[in-house]
Design a protein that fits this description.
This protein has 179 residues and is α/β, with parallel strands linked by helices. The protein has six helices and six strands. It has a six-stranded parallel sheet, sandwiched between helices. The radius of gyration is 15 Å and the shape is globular. The C terminus is likely disordered.
Amino acid sequence: MAITAILFDLGNTLVEQRVDSDKPLDRMRLVLLPGVKETLPILYTKYKLAVLSNTSRSKAANVTEALEKLSVRRYFSEIVTSIDVGAEKPNPRIFEAVLRRLGVKPDQALMIGNDLVQDIEGAKAIGLRTGWFTGTPKHHVDSADFSFSDFGDLPQLIAALEQSSGGYRDDKHSRRKSS
C-alpha cells in the first residue's frame, strides 16, 4: 500500500535532543538538524506529516509552539506526545493515537526516528514501515526498512521504498534490498 503519512520523532531526528524535565520544550532554544528545513516542504507536498515524541513534561501545545518558533509548524498535521496519550514509544497506544488522528492505517505510514527500540521496533510491531535516522553514516540494521544520515536523501529513499516490495538503505549511497 502507498505511504500517505510520515511520522517523525522529535529529538535527535528533527531537532537537537533536549530533555524537557525542567521546563517545556517551547521555553527552550531548539535547533533544527541539518537538512530538515529544506526537506519538510518537499515531503509536505505528498504526505501528511506528524510529530510523535516521548516527552517528560511537554504537551502537544508546547511542541506546537516550539515548532512554530522554528518556522516548521505548518508542515505537521498532527503533533502527539507521550504526555498527552499517557503512553511512551514503543507502546503501541501512542502510534495508534497518531494514526487515528491522521486517519491512516499502519501500512500507509512511515515512522522516521533515531532510536531503534522506541521508534523503529515500536512502529514495526504495529505494521508501520520505518526509516532509521542515524545522523552519521552507519550500517543498515534489518529492523528498519532503510537507514539514512542525510535528510536531503529522504525523499528519494521514501520513493524507492514505495516502489519496492522490501526496503532500501543508505550507507552513503550503497543500496541493499532487505527481505
